[in-house]
Fold:
Amino acid sequence: MLDSTGKCAVVTGASRGIGQAIALRFVQGGYKVWAIARSEEGLEKLARSAGSQIHPLPIDLSQPDQVIAGARLIAQGGAPDVLVNNAGVTKSSPLTQLGLEDFEGVMAVNLTAAFLLCRELLPTMAEAKRGRVINIASTAAVKGFKYGAAYCTSKHALVGLTRALAIEFAGQGVTVNAICPGWIDTDMLRNLSRSVAEANQRAPEAVLEAFRRLNPMQKFIALHDVAELAWFLASPHAATVTGSVYMMDGGETA
Structure:
């Protein structure tokens, strides 16, 4: 179990991509980090690179029982200072081909896991009169994308959860905010590119390039930029920032 002295952050989807960048930023800032992901191997690799400040916690976030058990294990060490709900999955499919199992699978990871972690950990933060919740949403939280019914629904709902909890916990020392990144060149984006390419009989590289061009700056969002915004939202400078949704998309949704 993590030492309860010093500051503690919880980051989901921490074995790669945005989650890994955020976990490493908080380690750099002196935090101890509960790094949550399904890949035990990925978490162990992160721990080897970042040192003893990383505490790997392998959880399949699509399984509510595992999420609740993990949250309660974390709470045994006291209220975390920061909770970053970053883990996400996507399923690109025309509506008529989108199975209920696939839809529910996306919702389970992108929304239900975040809800459960908030339900279990926010009361401990409120009791301690401190805490930051940072939900990593997407531009898909504020606009629609073709073949993105499951993903867009989950991210819109995550922003709704953010705003509701911000109001509920205002005045209790806890803030709740969301970051909505644009396209980032991660494994998830490349998997999505392959799915879209297959559905439209196009080359995956062409689809990836089309995603890049959706950004008016004509570039993908940098992982470290997202991590730095999360760091700011966890800082004393953001003590009165709550219920906010930060678009980090190069002007895509302006």
User: Anything to note?
Assistant: Helices lie at 17-28, 40-50, 64-75, 100-128, 149-169, 187-200, 204-213, 223-233.
